Amino acid sequence: MSAAGFAAEAAKLPAFIRRDWKIALSYRAVFVADVLGLASQVFVFFFIAKLIDPGALPTYGGTVPSYLAFVVIGLVINLTAGVLLYTVANSLRQEQMMGTMEALLSTPTSGATLQFGSVAYTLMLVPIRAAALLTAIGLLFGLDLHVSGALPALALLLCFLPFTWGLGLISAGLVVTFRRGTNATGFVVTALGLISGAVFPIAMLPGVLRTIAEWNAFAIAIEGVREALIGGSGWGAALSDMARLVPLSLAGLALGVLCFRWAMQRERRRGTLGQY
Questions:
Q1: What does the pLDDT look like over 32-81, one tens digit per residue?
Q2: Contact residues for 150 (Cβ-Cβ < 8 A; gap 6+)
Q3: Phi and psi, residue 180, nearest 5°
Q4: Does a structural domain hold residue 150?
Q5: Residue 57 included in any domain
Q6: What is the pTM assigned to this prediction?
Q7: Percentages of the chain per state (helix, strand, coil), in multiples of 5
Q8: Is the distance from CB of 259 to CB of 246 less than 8 angstroms?
Q9: 267 alpha-carbon distance from chain centroid
Q10: Residues 6+ apart with CB under 8 A from 50
């Protein structure tokens, strides 16, 4: 694609963002429900934390965290991943249900622009949302988090998002092909979340699962953010984690793009793209 063509495609992205912003304003209850859902989980873990011996938790930068600080970071990152994952599939499903998918595809807009445009608003909102949630929970429950670790933690989160986006594109491909598919992808995400160390230390896992967890993008992101916010480890540790996380994220995104492209081409050949 030429520079002029790339600029023309990029100029279309604000239209997607404005559309999704207006939709979000129309359905404020969804955002409130997400926040209340996370708040209820934090409230439950607040009392569970009273039963957990901090000595059983790993240390970060020589700091022994409270169980609440340990689990809150895992919950927020998993929620962030879930929001992006389901946004990709649900936005495509909405286009199918409203009958606008074929109209969009008939415009001189590339498939990559449609894929990125469908999540551009969420990609902008998710890091801000995660930072706001962590800040609010930290202030409310008096969590001892290092402010100096905020930027390394944000950088790790941004490196992690393409991996989740790739899973979302796989889910979107399943939706295009089978008109359903979020449940299957949701199962995979749940499995990855269980071995991510979000709610219990990875060291407690059996040997095989512990080995898998070492290359689980969820686990790398969560542990990296904990090192930054709880241990105050700074950019040195964050860059080391990013060196492991970026290849996984790029591979996940590439796989998602290929799966989604294959699904779209298949449905176009069959003439069933507009069916729902």
A1: 776 777 677 777 878 887 888 777 888 888 888 888 888 888 888 887 78
A2: 131, 228, 229
A3: -145, 175
A4: yes
A5: yes
A6: 0.81
A7: 80, 0, 20
A8: no
A9: 27
A10: none
Q: Would residue 63 count as lying in a domain?
A: yes
Per-residue pLDDT tens for 183-237?
666 677 777 778 888 888 888 888 888 888 888 999 999 999 999 999 888 898 8
Judging by beta carbons within 10 Å of its beta carbon (0-12, 13-18, 19+), is residue 55 exposed, middle or buried?
Answer: exposed
Segments forming the whole domain that contains residue 40: 3-270
- Residue 53 resides in a domain: yes
Q: What is the DSSP letter of 149?
A: G
CA–CA separation, 200 vs 204, rounded Å? 7
Contact 171, 88 (CB under 8 A): yes
How far apart are alpha carbons 256 and 107 in whole angstroms?
23
Specify the long-range contacts of residues 195-203, CB closer than 8 Å, at least 24 apart.
195/219, 196/74, 196/78, 196/222, 197/74, 197/222, 197/223, 198/71, 198/74, 198/75, 198/77, 198/78, 198/222, 199/45, 199/71, 199/74, 199/75, 201/56, 201/57, 201/58, 203/58
How crowded is residue 271: how many other Cβ atoms within 10 Å of its Cβ?
A: 8
Intra-chain end-to-end CA distance of the chain, in Å: 32
So what's the pLDDT on residue 274?
Answer: 56
Contact 117, 63 (CB under 8 A): no
User: What is the total count of domains within the chain?
Assistant: 1
φ, ψ of residue 63 to 5 degrees: the values are -100, 130
Q: Are 79 and 125 in contact (CB under 8 A)?
A: no
* Tokens found for residue 96: 């199918």
Alpha carbon distance 67, 45 (integer Å): 8
Distance CA 239, CA 236 (A): 5
Which alpha helices (H) appear in 142-196, and where do they start and end?
150-178, 182-194
Which pLDDT score is estimated for 41?
74
